[in-house]
Write a structure and sequence with these properties.
Blueprint (H helix, E strand, L loop, with lengths): L1 E3 L9 E7 L2 E7 L17 H5 L9 E3 L8 E3 L2 H18 L5 E5 L6 H5 L1 H8 L3 E3 L5 H11 L15 E5 L3 H4 L1 H12 L3 E5 L12 E3 L6 H15 L4 H7 E2 L1 H7 L5 H8 L3 H12 L4 E5 L9 H8 L2 H5 L8 E3 L10 H5 L11 E3 L3 H6 L9 E5 L3 H4 L3 H8 L5 E6 L11 E4 L26 E2 L3 H5 L18 H6 L2 E4 L15 H7 L3 E4 L1 H6 L7 E5 L4 E8 L7 E3 L36 E6 L1
Parallel strand pairs: 6-15, 7-14, 8-9, 8-12, 9-10, 11-18, 12-13, 15-16, 16-17, 19-23, 20-22
Antiparallel strand pairs: 1-2, 2-3, 4-5, 4-17, 19-24, 21-22, 21-24
Helix pairs in contact: 5-13, 8-11, 8-12, 8-13, 11-12
The protein binds ligand MGD (2 copies) and molybdenum atom.
The site of one ligand MGD has 32 residues, from helix 6.
């Protein structure tokens, strides 16, 4: 029978599943779906192992051991619900509903599961959660230029002359894009990957631009400099569909390839060649990953990249353009799902989810958080500043309920765990953020110049702003000289699938990639046990010494549950809960660290 992959991935694959005697026996890609084309990832092919995992939660559980130890006894649904009602009544009476905080994200992309808690917590008057952890920064940047989070259909890239995969490791994070890239390449397209390290995607490209992290806006501005200086422009398109070209032209004079080369870590001739290739015509397709937005300057970076196709008219070409996300292509009425009308007036306070650690440990707030209800997320693993998150979750007086399919690291801190069904056990409706099934509506103009950003005190024109936590921060680099990227790995989906012994084996072990020069200077050899330390904390990894990354840049792929890390601390011990320039999202990749032998 047919199903849909529920996980938080732009592909939203159409699946063919086989169930025999009540057990899932096989999952394959639907060959008849235009985007899936029969191809699915190595995680979901092993879905039977997840659905029938020994860590599945099958009955409500009550904690019997210390928080974090994962010692529970089974109880009935009635007992569990009675206990929640009793504890919450106490909290409502003593502290008010804002002392209760729901915490959820996109464990399931099913629209019913995703929004299931919203009406209930609105009616209760609980604190509201600002769900910023993933796309907010990128979307805010994109909107600043295009007015909406939309773009061209990925399938258009098949006819393009040039495909640029910019800050997206599609081979891991949205494999179906690689199917289209291969088709484009077979028809003669030149494929460029822009990424600070040689990802599996970069290995399949004609050209890999190994930029320094957080400098993409500078590179894009330099491309604009060349396009404008050499006249590779679609003047008709610019006239009809854009705002602010004169100011932009004046502004990008400062971003000559010579000036930008040392910032981005490429030579000027490479920048010029890339710009000329981009300017050769409108049949150029840029697929932008959300990865580039996970920096201090991430919003501005996305805004800047969104300007490029407007200069050459690629947005209007049937085989050109750019895509960050297809979210706005689906005209759903979210008020029906979210029910904001159920909220009390004035509406309850908002807690930014990337500040969970702060929210749980700052007891001076009025009221302090007394109860946390987690569903469709594993904050103990995925939130930045893990040390603070775990300190909060360990609070004896915090009443924590976790609604989960699997006994995750977060579930280990729960007072009560409630069992959740998987996508193969419930009905839901899925939309994708990487492909379209409905028409897109790009309205208004492409804003090279943005009054709205100027009013927010940000540069009105696309501008390269150095990272707060980057090489320009002399004080921090003295102690933490390496930039640490923390992108997805191949066999986990955020922290999901970390429960799987099979996929952990395939993934290997938690590793940190280091350039040979950086390793040598620290006396680190390939395979050595190392400690990675940031201003927030330290965790242990196995060193992989490789020229796949630049000098000064180290890479830790994937989120392992911390119970599977050598000293019980995960990658997000290193990351900061600082917010980016736009959208209130996290700067996961703007981390300075030092690596030493353990
Ligand atoms: N296998 C797997 N697939 C996944 C996920 C997963 O965890 N595992 N997560 C899913 C989720 S929730 C999301 S949001 C999506 C997309 O998640 P994204 O975070 O967009 O991940 P990628 O698309 O892989 O893009 C990350 C790439 O950006 C690069 N990058 C980091 N900093 C910079 C920079 O400054 N400049 C440039 N040019 N590149 C940079 C990284 O090196 C990495 O190769 O993936 C989804 N798919
Ligand atoms: N270091 C680092 N950290 C990151 C990132 C990174 O690239 N690097 N990426 C960030 C990004 S982009 C994202 S989106 C977040 C993702 O963070 P999360 O949304 O927390 O993602 P997962 O780790 O996949 O955890 C989802 C949980 O939901 C559960 N679940 C699935 N379906 C259901 C359901 O129907 N009901 C219930 N109740 N539970 C369900 C799963 O079992 C799983 O444990 O992580 C962020 N954290
Ligand atoms: Mo995400």
């Amino acid at each position: 029978m047919l199903s849909v992959c529920p996980h938080d991935c732009p592909s939203a694959c159409s699946l063919v599943v086989t169930v025999e005697d009540g057990r899932l026996t096989s999952v394959t890609g639907n060959p008849d779906h235009p985007f899936t084309q029969g191809v699915i990832c190595g995680k979901v092919r092993e879905y039977a192992e997840r659905v029938h995992s020994p860590l599945r939660v099958l009955t409500p559980l009550r904690r019997v051991g210390a928080k974090g130890r994962g010692e529970f006894e089974p109880i009935s649904w009635d007992e569990a619900i009675d206990e929640i009602a009793r504890r919450w009544r106490g909290i409502l009476g003593a502290d008010g509903a804002e002392a209760i905080l729901p915490f959820s994200y996109a464990g399931s992309m099913g629209q019913v599961q995703y929004y299931a808690g919203h009406p209930f917590f609105h009616a209760l008057g609980a604190s509201r959660l600002d769900r910023t952890i993933c796309v907010n920064t990128a979307y805010a940047g994109w909107r600043a230029t295009l007015g909406a989070v939309t773009g061209n259909d990925s399938e258009q890239m098949v006819g393009a002359d040039l495909v640029v995969l910019w800050g997206v490791n599609a081979a891991y994070s949205t494999i179906n894009v690689m199917t289209l890239v291969k088709q484009a390449r077979a028809r003669g397209a030149f494929v460029v990957v822009v990424d600070p390290y040689r990802t599996s995607t970069a290995q399949q490209a004609d050209l890999h631009l190994m930029v320094r992290p957080g400098t993409d806006a500078a590179l894009a501005l330099s491309v604009m400099h060349v396009l404008i200086a050499e006249g590779h422009l679609d003047r008709d398109y610019i006239e009809r569909a854009t705002l602010g070209i004169e100011r932009l032209a004046e502004h990008v004079k400062a971003y000559s390839p010579e000036a930008v080369a040392p910032i981005v870590g490429l030579d000027a001739a490479t920048i010029v060649r890339f710009a000329r290739r981009y300017g050769a015509g409108p049949r150029t397709f840029i697929r932008i990953g959300i990865g580039i937005s996970r920096h201090d300057n991430g919003g501005m970076t996305c805004r800047t990249l969104a300007c490029l196709p407007a200069l050459t008219g690629a947005y209007a070409d049937p085989h050109g353009g750019a895509l960050l996300s297809s979210t706005a292509g689906f005209g759903f009425d979210y008020a029906v799902l979210e029910r904001p009308d159920l909220m009390p007036t004035p509406p309850p306070r908002i807690v930014n989810m990337i500040h969970l650690g702060r929210a749980l440990t700052d007891l001076r707030q009025a009221p302090a958080i007394r109860s946390l209800y987690v569903y469709s997320s594993n904050p103990a693993a995925v939130c930045p500043n893990q040390t603070l998150v775990l300190a909060g979750l360990a609070r004896e007086d915090l009443f924590t309920v976790v609604h989960e399919q699997i006994l995750t690291d977060t579930a280990f801190y729960a007072d009560l765990v409630l069992p959740a069904t998987t996508s193969l056990e419930h009905l839901d409706l899925y939309r994708s953020y990487g492909q379209f099934t409905l028409q897109l509506a790009p309205s208004g103009k492409v804003e090279f110049y943005s009054e709205r950003l100027a009013r927010q005190g940000l540069p009105a024109l696309p501008t390269y702003v150095p990272l707060d936590e980057g090489p320009e921060n002399r004080e921090l680099t003295a102690r933490y000289p390496l930039q640490c990227l923390v992108p997805p790995n191949r066999f986990f989906l955020n922290s999901s699938f970390s429960q799987s012994a099979l996929l952990r084996r395939r993934q290997g072990t938690p590793t940190v990639m280091l350039a040979p020069e950086d390793a040598e200077r620290r006396g680190i050899v390939d395979g050595a046990a190392v400690t990675v330390e940031s201003p927030r904390g330290a965790a242990r990894f196995t060193a992989r010494v490789t020229d796949a990354t630049r000098r000064g840049v180290v890479v830790i792929e994937g989120i392992w549950w911390h119970r599977f890390q050598p000293d019980g601390r995960g990658v997000n011990v290193l990351t900061s809960d600082r917010v980016t320039d736009l959208g209130g999202g996290p700067a996961f990749h703007s981390n300075l660290v030092e690596v030493s032998r353990a």
